[in-house]
Structure formats: structure tokens, C-alpha cells
Amino acid sequence: MNKLFYPAIFHKAEEGGFWISFPDIPECLTEGDDMQQAYEMAVEALGLALIGRKEEGEEIPIPSEIGEIRNEDGTIVIVGFDMLEYKKKHNARAVKKTLSIPEWLNEEAVARGVNFSSVLQEALMAKLNIGR
Known about the structure:
- This protein is an alpha+beta fold and about 130 residues long.
- Helices cover about 40% and strands about 20% of the residues.
- The protein is built from 4 helices and 4 strands, in the order E-E-E-H-E-H-H-H.
- The protein has helices spanning about 35-55, 85-90, 105-110, 115-130, and strands spanning about 5-10, 20, 30, 75-80.
- Strands 3-2-1-4 form a 4-stranded antiparallel beta sheet.
- Strand 1 (about 5-10) and strand 2 (about 20) form a beta hairpin.
- The radius of gyration is 21 Å and the shape is elongated.
């Protein structure tokens, strides 16, 4: 559930540009001067709303089907958010971990100049099937 897609309604603003609402996430509103900026702002707003809900232990809603959305004054646009990419960008600080390995393996790795942190990161990404 790393990539999430939600319908958004892009409304034309009287003063120009667009304002955007998300039927499934009522607190998520944003705006943009043109379609490109509006879409970029929608992705950012969606991400902040979803991350906020997750951090508060609130439910992440199931996206509505497009046919179920009442829309009288805007255009429905699907907005995507990649939770893993967001975490990579914003949660990159190092976290200390303690691990145990056999003494002989430690000695051999130290003798060969192995960087334990790099090896562990690479192994975890391979195990979780996650690219950099």
C-alpha cells in the first residue's frame, strides 16, 4: 500500500486557477494558479493529509469509485501519492541498530574493510524488494 490514488475535484476559481478538494479526505484542500501547479499542490496536499492521518493513528480511507462521486462544478482528476518515496525523501535520518553476527564473520568482514551499515541497508532493500 505504498502507492495510493485518490479522486480529486479540480474547481475553476473565480480569480483564475483552480482550487482542489478530495471527497474522501474532507480536510484536504489546496489550490494552484494553473493546471500543472494545481496538480503538484494536490499531490503535496494529499501526501500531507495521508501522512498526518497515519501519524495520528487515524484511518486511511478507501478511495471512492469515480462513478460514486457527486460532482457538479469541477473536473475529477486522479491524484497519486507514493508513500515510500515520501518516506525516503523526508525520513532519511540514520537510526542506530544493534545486531549480532558470529565472531568469525565479524573478523573476516573487518579484515576486508566491509561497511556494515551499507551491507545491512542493501540486504534489507533486497529482502523488501525496495529500490533506492
